[in-house]
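tool_log.txt
---
The assistant was asked to compare two proteins side by side. It first ran the structure predictor on the initial sequence, then on the second. Raw inputs and outputs are pasted verbatim so the downstream comparison step can read them without reformatting.
(1)
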Amino acid sequence: MIDEKVMVNDVLSSVKSSLTFYANTISECANPELRSTIQQIRNNDEASQYQLFQMAQAKGYYKPALMAKDDEIQQTKSQVSS
């Protein structure tokens, strides 16, 4: 039997893939109504993903990368802006 940690991480991975798919689809969608519908679906999935992420993190199932330092953030901003 698959344990909860494995299932949660599988769902998180699946939702991340879906969000990437939605972003690509939205950027190429010419029909405004369809684009809006896909954006709503994406927004709902993002909200669900964040709730699941919070639960996974609280239970120790998921450990995000360490937070970047302020100087690293500023350096990246400078590189991207130039």
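(2)
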Amino acid sequence: MITIFGSTNLDQIGTAGRARAGGTFSMASGGKGANQALAARRAGAKVLHVSTVGDDVFADPATELLRDNGVGLHGSSAF
């Protein structure tokens, strides 16, 4: 098993048109630790990712991709 201690984020990505009207907004899971954990899991390793995430509306979406791909999150905590 690989254990990774690192950050877990929810990236918020916004783009603006040339005249700053319109544009798009999206969110994506991120963080160096989370990205490493996901890559190791996709390569076939059994992975535990230890991180602290906030206790807000972004916490579940930030960890959802990890859970959905089989990355263990036991020991992670919200503050």
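---
observation on (2): Strands lie at 2-5, 9-15, 24-30, 47-50, 52-53, 77-78. The chain has two helices and six strands.
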